[in-house]
């Protein structure tokens, strides 16, 4: 597969098999399902635009309200975990519409937040209370329960409302492809000036690639996983100028996960868009060309007009799945 075909697939949210890790230092422990938790969360609205909430049954947060959410189990895909958690906690069947956001906390957990819709079942009643939840109810955004477990869900509810009203990225679902660690395939771009789709004919854009013209895949390590990985890669392949560079993770273009074989196929690969810029202009540095690379990497200029325009639009408009480090 050519580099151009690879970039097209990544931009469409499609997956690619992980065959090589370009950054995986042996002395550093990579993030896997053994040392991090994968979780799911559902934002579901009914025909009245009310959001689905569940009342917690766990001792530490007993009686408080939250979105349906929980940890993935061994052998599950991300979508299977979503459907199971919603069924157990809320009593209804659901179908994912799109991934809405990816959240992380340290390397301790990564949470996949979905916008989903009800497809069957009925709300869990107080008479059906069990260890999973006490009950489920629909609530208007302006009339949510006062005893919410954590207020982080408010931004997720608002994102779901916004997506319904005006989707800012195409619907995105996880792709069933195996991986044994948490890693990122980086569409790491450098532009000749501030990205501006209106002047895309004049804009030049380069992508960081390995010497064999592959998009780099970097393992995530025990740090704020999703944000730090790109910085570690840039520091590795541009060490002499790293301190003068700004590495900005724009968001997620695609999610790859299988989960069938614990310890072997239950990692996740996140195809990530990253923008590399100089922190400030200096006379001795040409900011119109990408920085010098080392250690087996080089720059490839994107000459395909359609690809260049699409990449620039995603950078400028933020039309990709957001990622949040908590």
UniProtKB/TrEMBL annotation:
Record-linked Gene3D superfamilies: Nucleoside Triphosphate Pyrophosphohydrolase
Protein name (database record): Nudix hydrolase domain-containing protein
Record carries keyword Transmembrane: no
Keyword terms of this UniProt record: Hydrolase
Domain of life where this protein originates: Eukaryota
Presence of the UniProt keyword Membrane in the record: no
Similarity remark: Belongs to the Nudix hydrolase family.
Residue ranges annotated for the Nudix hydrolase domain, each copy included: 35-161
GO molecular function annotations of the record: 8-oxo-dGDP phosphatase activity; 8-oxo-GDP phosphatase activity
Organism of provenance: Cirrhinus molitorella
A UniProt-annotated Pfam family: NUDIX
């Amino acid at each position: 597969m050519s580099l151009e075909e690879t970039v097209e697939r990544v931009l469409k949210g499609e997956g690619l098999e992980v065959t090589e890790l370009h950054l995986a230092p042996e002395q550093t422990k990579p993030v896997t399902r053994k040392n991090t938790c994968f979780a799911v969360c559902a934002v579901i609205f009914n025909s009245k635009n009310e959001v689905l909430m569940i009342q917690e049954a766990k001792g530490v947060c007993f009686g408080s309200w939250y979105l349906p959410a929980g940890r993935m189990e061994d052998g599950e895909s991300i979508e299977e975990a979503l459907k199971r958690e919603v069924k157990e906690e809320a009593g209804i069947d659901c179908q994912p519409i799109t991934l809405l956001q990816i959240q992380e906390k340290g390397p301790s957990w990564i949470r996949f937040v979905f916008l989903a819709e009800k497809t069957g079942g009925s709300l869990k009643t107080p008479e059906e209370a069990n260890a999973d939840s006490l009950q489920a109810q629909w609530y208007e955004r302006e009339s949510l329960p006062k005893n919410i477990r954590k207020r982080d869900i408010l931004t997720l509810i608002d994102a779901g409302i916004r997506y319904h009203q005006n989707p800012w990225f195409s619907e995105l679902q996880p792709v069933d492809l195996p991986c044994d660690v948490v890693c990122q395939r980086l569409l790491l771009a450098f532009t000749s000036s501030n990205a501006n789709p209106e002047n895309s004919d004049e804009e030049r854009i380069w992508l960081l690639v390995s010497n064999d013209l592959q998009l780099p895949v970097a393992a995530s390590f025990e740090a704020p996983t999703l944000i730090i990985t790109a910085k570690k890669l840039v520091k590795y392949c541009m060490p002499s100028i790293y301190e003068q560079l700004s590495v900005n993770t724009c968001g997620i273009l695609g999610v790859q996960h299988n989960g069938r074989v614990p310890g072997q196929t239950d990692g996740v690969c996140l195809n990530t868009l990253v923008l590399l810029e100089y922190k400030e202009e200096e006379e001795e540095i040409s900011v119109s060309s990408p920085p010098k690379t080392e250690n087996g990497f080089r720059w490839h200029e994107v000459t395909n007009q359609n690809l260049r325009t699409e990449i620039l639009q995603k950078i400028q408009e933020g039309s990709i799945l957001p990622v949040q480090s908590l």
